[in-house]
C-alpha cells in the first residue's frame, strides 16, 4: 500500500465488499422512488396510494412549497448526494483532514434522509385502530428504510477505517483520570447538560405529544414510548424497529455513555475512543427528525386527522436540543481535560 492511498486502495478485498453493498443501497434508493410508500383509506372518500415523488408533487401543487422543498431535499436529493460523496471519499480522496471532515458531516446529516419515513410513521400512528381512516405502508417505504440504513452503516464503516489510520499523538500523562476532575468548568457544564437531557428525555417518553380531536375518530393520545408499542400492535415490524431503536434505545444508550465518559476514569487514548464511538452512536438518535416530522404533520396533516398539541411535543423538542447540546459540551470538556492531562507538570 502506498502512502496517501485511498480507502479503496488500502484493501481491495474490503473495498469490493463495501462497493457491492453500496451498489445494493443505490439500487434500493432508485427503486424506492418508483414504488408506492403508503395507501390511505378514508371513509366516504375512498383510497389513495402515495409514492415519494407523488407526495412531493401533491404538496407543491397545493401550495405547500416549504414542506415539498424539505422532503425533496432530505428524502429525494440528499440520499443520492450522500452516496456520491461517500464514493468520492472511498475511491478518490487520500488520508487527511479533508476526507475526515467530509465523512464526519455525512454521518451527522445522514439521518435527515429519514424525514419521509418518520412522516409516514406519524400518519400510521394516528390512523391506528380508527375505523374512519386507515394508513397502510407499502414496499416503497421498506426499500427506502433499507437503503438509508445501509448507507448510514457504510458511512460509519468508512469513518472507522479512516480514523483507524490516524495515529494519536503521545500523551505525557498515561494515568487513568476522569473528565469530571480534569475538565474544569466544561465538566460542570457537561454534567448539567447531560442531566437536563436525561430529565427531558425521560419525561418525553410518557407525556403525550399529540391527541386526536376529530369527530368519528377515537380520542387517542400518543407519547414517544407509545409509538413502537402501537407499531407492534399494527404488526408493522420495520416501523416498530425504527421507532424503538432511534427514538428510545439509542438516545438512552448515548446519554448513559456520555455520563460514563464523564465519570469513569480512563487513559487519554480511551477518552478519545469513547468520544469517537459516542459520536457514531449519535447518528442513530432521531428525536430531532421525529420532531420535524410532527411539525410537518401539524402544518398539513390536520386536513386528514385533526389533532391537538400536547406538552410532550415541547418536551420532545427540548430533549432533542439538549441531547445535541450535551454532545457538543462533552466534546469541549474532553478537549479541555486532554489539554490538562498533556500540560507539563510544574
How is the secondary structure organized here?
Layout: H1 7-10, H2 12-34, E1 36-42, E2 46-51, H3 52-61, H4 65-91, H5 97-110, H6 115-126, E3 133-137, H7 139-163, H8 179-182, H9 184-206, E4 210-212, E5 221-222, H10 226-233, H11 237-263, H12 268-282, H13 287-300, E6 307-309, H14 311-342
Antiparallel strand pairs: 1-2, 1-3, 4-5, 4-6
Helix pairs in contact: 2-4, 2-7, 3-4, 4-5, 4-7, 5-7, 6-13, 9-11, 9-14, 10-11, 11-12, 11-14, 12-14, 13-14
Coarse shape:
globular
Report the sheet-strand fraction: 5-15%
The N- to C-terminal Cα distance equals: 44 Å
How many individual domains? 2
Instruction: Indicate the CATH topology of the largest domain.
Output: Butyryl-CoA Dehydrogenase, subunit A, domain 3
User: Could you spell the SSE succession in H and E letters?
Assistant: HHEEHHHHEHHHEEHHHHEH
- Parts with pLDDT < 50 across at least 5 consecutive residues: 168-172
Major sheet: arrangement of strands: 2-1-3
CATH class of the largest domain: Mainly Alpha
Radius of gyration of CA atoms, rounded to a whole number: 22 Å
Please bin the fraction of helical residues: 55-70%
Structural class: mainly alpha
Give the total of beta strands: 6
Number of helices: 14
* CATH-scheme architecture of the largest domain: Up-down Bundle
Mean pLDDT: 85
Biggest pleated-sheet summary: 3 strands, antiparallel
Description:
- This protein has 346 residues and is mainly alpha-helical.
- The protein has helices at 7-10, 12-34, 52-61, 65-91, 97-110, 115-126, 139-163, 179-182, 184-206, 226-233, 237-263, 268-282, 287-300, 311-342; strands at 36-42, 46-51, 133-137, 210-212, 221-222, 307-309.
- The chain folds into two domains: 9-165, Butyryl-CoA Dehydrogenase, subunit A, domain 3; 177-346, Up-down Bundle (Butyryl-CoA Dehydrogenase, subunit A, domain 3), CATH 1.20.140.
- A three-stranded antiparallel beta sheet has the order 2-1-3.
- The longest helix has 32 residues, at 311-342.
- It is globular.
Amino acid at each position: 500500500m502506498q502512502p496517501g492511498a485511498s480507502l479503496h486502495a488500502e484493501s481491495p478485498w474490503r473495498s469490493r465488499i463495501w462497493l457491492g453493498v453500496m451498489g445494493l443501497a443505490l439500487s434500493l434508493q432508485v427503486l424506492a422512488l418508483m414504488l408506492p410508500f403508503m395507501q390511505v383509506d378514508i371513509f366516504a372518500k375512498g383510497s389513495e396510494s402515495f409514492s415519494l415523488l407523488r407526495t412531493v408533487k401533491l404538496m407543491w401543487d397545493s401550495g405547500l412549497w416549504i414542506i415539498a422543498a424539505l422532503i425533496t431535499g432530505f428524502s429525494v436529493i440528499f440520499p443520492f448526494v450522500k452516496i456520491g460523496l461517500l464514493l468520492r471519499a472511498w475511491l478518490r480522496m487520500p488520508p487527511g483532514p479533508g476526507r475526515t471532515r467530509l465523512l464526519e458531516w455525512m454521518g451527522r446529516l445522514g439521518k435527515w434522509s429519514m424525514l419521509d419515513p418518520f412522516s409516514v410513521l406519524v400518519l400510521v400512528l394516528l390512523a391506528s385502530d380508527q375505523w374512519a381512516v386507515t394508513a397502510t405502508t407499502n414496499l416503497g417505504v421498506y426499500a427506502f428504510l433499507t437503503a438509508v440504513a445501509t448507507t448510514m452503516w457504510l458511512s460509519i464503516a468508512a469513518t472507522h477505517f479512516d480514523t483507524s489510520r490516524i495515529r494519536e499523538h503521545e500523551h505525557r500523562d498515561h494515568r487513568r483520570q476522569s473528565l469530571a476532575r480534569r475538565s474544569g468548568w466544561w465538566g460542570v457544564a457537561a454534567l448539567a447538560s447531560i442531566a437536563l437531557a436525561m430529565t427531558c428525555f425521560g419525561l418525553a417518553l410518557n407525556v403525550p405529544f399529540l391527541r386526536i380531536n376529530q369527530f368519528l375518530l377515537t380520542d387517542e393520545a400518543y407519547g414517544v414510548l407509545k409509538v413502537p408499542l402501537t407499531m407492534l400492535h399494527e404488526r408493522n415490524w420495520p416501523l416498530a424497529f425504527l421507532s424503538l431503536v432511534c427514538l428510545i434505545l439509542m438516545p438512552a444508550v448515548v446519554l448513559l455513555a456520555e455520563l460514563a465518559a464523564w465519570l469513569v476514569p480512563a487513559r487519554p487514548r480511551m477518552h478519545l475512543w469513547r468520544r469517537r464511538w459516542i459520536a457514531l452512536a449519535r447518528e442513530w438518535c432521531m428525536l430531532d427528525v421525529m420532531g420535524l416530522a410532527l411539525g410537518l404533520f401539524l402544518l398539513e396533516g390536520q386536513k386528514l386527522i385533526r389533532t391537538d398539541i400536547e406538552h410532550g411535543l415541547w418536551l420532545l423538542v427540548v430533549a432533542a436540543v439538549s441531547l445535541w447540546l450535551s454532545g457538543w459540551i462533552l466534546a469541549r470538556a474532553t478537549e479541555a481535560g486532554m489539554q490538562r492531562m498533556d500540560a507539563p507538570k510544574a
